Structure formats: structure tokens, C-alpha cells
């Protein structure tokens, strides 16, 4: 049977109920607060405050986390699964700071939709805009939550106009705010003709919902002061005339975003947003791969690694590979093929991330995110299948834009430093090159703050104080070509040669002139700014 909305085969119920998404926002817009309320309504935590409390307990353990706190950035991303009504939500956390864009971009390859949170007073901010552009590259469906309506906010039409103009996407109001700041009463639910009233006394109480028959219903007079009601009627009428109507197909194609207004801290508007994600959000989508695409309903399991995190638990030196299942029904203990090395892997202790605790995953379906502890075999971009040689495509790798050399302040620790750096390279936290001549390492990152994060992590997780220093090199290129041609280049340019964590050869440059020279003198080799993640 074909699904009306998507014109695709109807998915097995377990897959069809899954909604895998990320939240994109500018720091401070309310992502953490909203996440917490999601988990609260999803029954994953009992009390608001737990997410933050856990976060802080973790943070006090280290200065690195202190830095995270001071700068208001979240460095470690994770995945959280919880049920809401008939749905299973998988929320993949995106690191918020712009310096972590590489990680964030990859995270967005693992989701089917994004919730965009904006601050009602600030509108579309820089980081939101950047993340939105990434979502746009994949035409990800976007649902918008305009937060902090309990504070003095901008005019509703202004906010909607700004989104339409700055992000070039149609906006349809799913709810309409009644008043703002101190006078904020709640919202008129434009999709279901309901009145949602906010309870200011109890922040964790879900809004009172009153069923009404359109905007002329007399019930409205009982709950809304006359002047506010007149304004609401006028605005909603205007909105219905001027703004596009809700259209699920347009949402799924990424050309229209429904917007809900609310206040995460007051638990207001959150349930309506969750209902929206469930009812209108996309089911697990087809995954692009080579040599063929992977459909979620395929009975065989396939999945791909979009993130690797080392040292999640300081007591265990394990790494967790975050795998997005692209198809099938996974059962614990399954043997999957690691396509890159063609080796079988028994997945005996996969974890699901329920709230902030890990739990053994007995089973998982297409759309789910599972964590696979491993000792470094699994890398970002790797595909796991039941045997077929499929390779998931579209996971970006970025050219390192800043290079520095790094040394252990205690030379006796150089060997340990190498191990630590290799691990971070595998996590995708940095590019690490070992120069062919001399000692030490060259580290390449996308944003300057990453050097500081790395220095803190190396010291905290490995006990090695390090120093980053300017390098004579400014950029790196991977060298590809027939062995003979590559060897010739390497032999005559040793002072420019380095090796990445896979042992692949890079040409380290100081000036564009270096690259031009190689292109001219070695027509049989090619230099590339990024290496395919595979
Ligand atoms: P994040 O940086 O996006 O994760 O934002 P947080 O969730 O940490 O929120 C940033 C600040 O805004 C915190 O002080 C929150 O308490 C506050 N905040 C979040 N939601 C609301 C809201 O609905 N109303 C008001 N007034 N403050 C909020």
C-alpha cells in the first residue's frame, strides 16, 4: 500500500512511529530547556531540572567542562530516545557553538527533521541562520518553536516576516500568541481550534486546553480580556489571509515551516510542538548510499556511523560509535559486516540513550540511533550491513583551515600524546598530521576554539599537558595518484610531507604558490582539500 502523503510504501508500524530529529538554535534561545521538557513529557525524566543537574554534576568533574560552561557551549553531543503518545522520538543533540560546525554538520546527516528554536525577542540569530543553511542543503523539514513569549517579544508578524525573508522559507502559524511579556496569556491553536492557556503559577504544569468552535465562540470571552480578544481576532484573520496555510507536503519538502509560540521554561507550547513533530514530522527517510539507496522498510539491517565519541566514561577507555539505522530491525547480538574492512562484527552490547542514562539496546529499528562501544574499528562514515557492500554517502569532511604544531611540555610523554591525538583524529575532532621530518605533530581544525578544547581534553583525559604553537604551514592537501608518481613527489618534497591518522600522505603547504608548483610539476598526482570519510 502506498502512503498518501509520501507516495511511498507504507512502513512497518514500528518504523512509521519513529521521529528522528535535532534541535537547531543560537546559544541561549532555550534548547536545553526545551529538551528537558521533551524528556519530561516523554516520561524519560521525572522532574524538570534533571538534565541540567546531571550536566552540572558532570561538569564539575573537569576544567574542560568548566570551559564548556563558561562559554556556554556544549561540546559533547549525544542522542536521546523517548516515547510520546504513539511515537518514538529520537533526539540527536547538536553542539551549539559555531566552532564545532564540522561535528554539527555530520550530526544533521543522521536526522530526518530539525526543530528550530528562536528567541521571541531576538528572532533569527547568526548560528540559527548557519545551521538552517545546512538543513537546507538536505531539504530537511523544519518545525519552528518561538520561545520566551513570557518575555517582551517582537510583534508576531515581524518574527514571521523575518524568518520568511532571512531564511527564504514559507512560514505558517500553527499557533498564535495572545499578548506577550507580562500580558502573555497563551495561544490560539490555529490547527485544532483550541485555546491554550498558560499557568504562570506552576512552571511544570501543562497548559489548560479549551476546545472552542472558532474565533467567534463565546467561551473565548470568558478567558480573554476584551481588548486582547479583539486584537487576537484581527491578527488571526490577517494571518489567515496573508500567510500560507498549513501543508504537510510542503513541510516534508522543506519549503514551509509551521511555527508554534510558547515558553519552554513555563512548559507552554511544548506539547503542541511535540504533537506537531509526531503528526506532521517525517518518518524515517530513504538514505543515499552507493551503489544504491537504502529504504527504511528493507528487512535487512543497514546503518552508518555519524559520530564517534571517546572517553564518554572516564573510567572506561572505550569509544562509542553513534550509528543511525537506515533500514531493518536490529536485534542485539546480530553479526553485521563492517563494509570498509569487510570484516564481520558481532554487535553484542549496543546502547540506547534513554534520557541521560545508557541502556542496553535489545532491539532497534530504522530511524533509531544506537551506540556501539568499540576499540577504534568504527570510524565516522563507516557503513554496517548484513553483508551487502553499501556505502552511505553524503557525510561531509571539512578541510582543516587552521594548522598548529603541538608538543607535550614533558618530552617523555610524546608517545602518549600520539595516542591521544590519534583518538581525537578518529573522533573527527581534529585532523592530525605527523610530519615526515622532525618530531611533534601538526593539528588542523576548522575553528580556533578547537585548539583550546583539544588542549584541555588532552590534559584531562590523558594527563598530558601540551602546548600548541604556530606552525610554518597554513594548509594541507591529501595526495592521490599512482604509487610511482606519489613516491616521486614525496622523495623530492620531504619537508612538506606529513601522514594523517590513517597513514595517508598529505602535502603541507605554506603558500598557494606551493600548491601551484606541485600541480605544475606533478601532473600525475592530484591534491584534494578534504578526504572522503570512509
Ligand atoms: P540554550 O543555550 O539554547 O540551551 O538555552 P537554555 O535552555 O540554557 O536557556 C537559556 C536561558 O533562557 C536560561 O536562563 C533559561 O532559563 C532561559 N529560558 C529558557 N526558556 C525560557 C522561557 O520560555 N522564558 C524565559 N523567560 N526564559 C527562558
Strand arrangement in the largest pleated sheet: 27-24-26-25-29-30-28-31
In the CATH hierarchy, the third-tier topology of the largest domain is known as: Rossmann fold
Biggest beta-sheet profile: 8 strands, antiparallel
- Work out the strand percent: 25-35%
Decide which structural class fits the backbone. Answer: alpha+beta
Count up the helices. Answer: 15
List of distinct ligands in this structure = guanosine-5'-diphosphate
CATH class label of the largest domain: Alpha Beta
The geometry reads as elongated
* Computed Rg: 25 Å
Write down how many β-strands occur, each being a DSSP E stretch of 2 or more residues: 31
Please state the second-level CATH architecture of the largest domain.
Answer: 3-Layer(aba) Sandwich
Note poorly predicted spans.
Answer: 47-77
Description of the structure:
The strands form 7 sheets. Strands 27-24-26-25-29-30-28-31 form an 8-stranded antiparallel β-sheet. Strands 2-3-1-4-5-11-6 form a 7-stranded mixed β-sheet, with helices on both faces. The protein contains 15 helices and 31 strands. The radius of gyration is 25 Å and the shape is elongated. The chain has 3 domains: 13-280, P-loop containing nucleotide triphosphate hydrolases (Rossmann fold); 289-392, P-loop containing nucleotide triphosphate hydrolases (Rossmann fold); 399-532, 2-Layer Sandwich (Alpha-Beta Plaits), CATH 3.30.70.3280. The chain is 28% helix and 29% strand. It starts with 12 loop residues before the first helix and ends in a 6-residue tail after the last strand. Bound molecules: guanosine-5'-diphosphate. The site of guanosine-5'-diphosphate has 16 residues, from α2. Guanosine-5'-diphosphate is lined by residues 25, 27-33, 147-148, 150-151, 263-266.
